[in-house]
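# nightly structure sweep
# worker-07 picked up a monomer target from the shared queue
# config: single-sequence mode, recycle default, output format = structure tokens
# input follows
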Amino acid sequence: MKRRPEDVERYTAFSKVVSFLKDLSGVSDGSFIQFVGDNVDHNLKTLEGLGTFHGMGIIGAVTPGEKRSRPIRRDTSVNANQISTLGQIPVHFYNSSKTEISLRYEELQDFRLEEVTTKLDLLWKVSWPLRTPRIGWSGLMQAVSEGSFPGQSTITFLSMIDIQPTNMSFIYSTLLFVSNLAAKYKVKPILTFDQPLWWKAQLILDSEPADSHLRSLILQLGGFHTQMNYLGTIGHLMTGSGLRELLEVVYAPDGVVHMLSGKAVARAARGHLLVDSVLNALLASSAFGVDLQSIVREEIDPARTATDKTREVSALHSEEMEGEDNSYSIRDNINDSSLSSCLQLLDQVLKKEVPVEVM
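# output follows
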């Protein structure tokens, strides 16, 4: 039977859809593949309660990624119903033979390693009065860090499973799908879940036989919820301290509520860095005797050099010391040479003339 050209074209489109939903792009020898699964919600708040979707979404991150120089054309010959039919993940029923699973806490090892960037952070803050505008912390770390960078990863959206994510059969099917897909590319299966799904997936792996291929799967606990809890703890402990009012100078009041509760992670991290910069500016100006108004003049007149700023700091020290008693002050041991040395050391670190480890 001879196929019509339109049937051949449609079959080719179907094959591409199935390959896109169940395969990864950009995989080569030496690629690192990380799978991530989480809840997917769609149309939850409808008037009639119909047309909602609550299931599992899976993505695959391939590192190093694949560079795409042209956009992907939309294929109109395939509709949504055909995609949902072809891109399904087989659902396997989970029936554990174990009725009880023991939980044992391993002894935590005591890791007390000195962070080499601690002194760099202190130097970065101390040098603030001598350099305006100052290089940001992320820019500083990028300037002094060394090593190979694999590049940006390629993210591939895989098929979804239309079952309640809390269902054990649903999680079991996800583990099998990831394990089989990793075996196809001959890589170690690595899957990341958030805490509720991670715990149930761990129970499934513990109940598997010793010779099961799922035993080779590496199950990781996602750190996003830990970061949310940490930011929420800061907001709870700082209640009534004025932190909320300070953040509302930059952010909208409704947004600050989510920042302090840990829900808006990216915005909260940026806001706390801004607060840290402001507090550091106040402390540094007080310790070094720098008038904050001089920083404003620096923005207006950028021709002032570091030597000019050092002389201004030294003059401020002399004026303040004349009117003070002989009691100990942190400013007594600070002079223009020490501030100049800090700036010189920072420049050497940025030029990689002085390693961060030997600071």
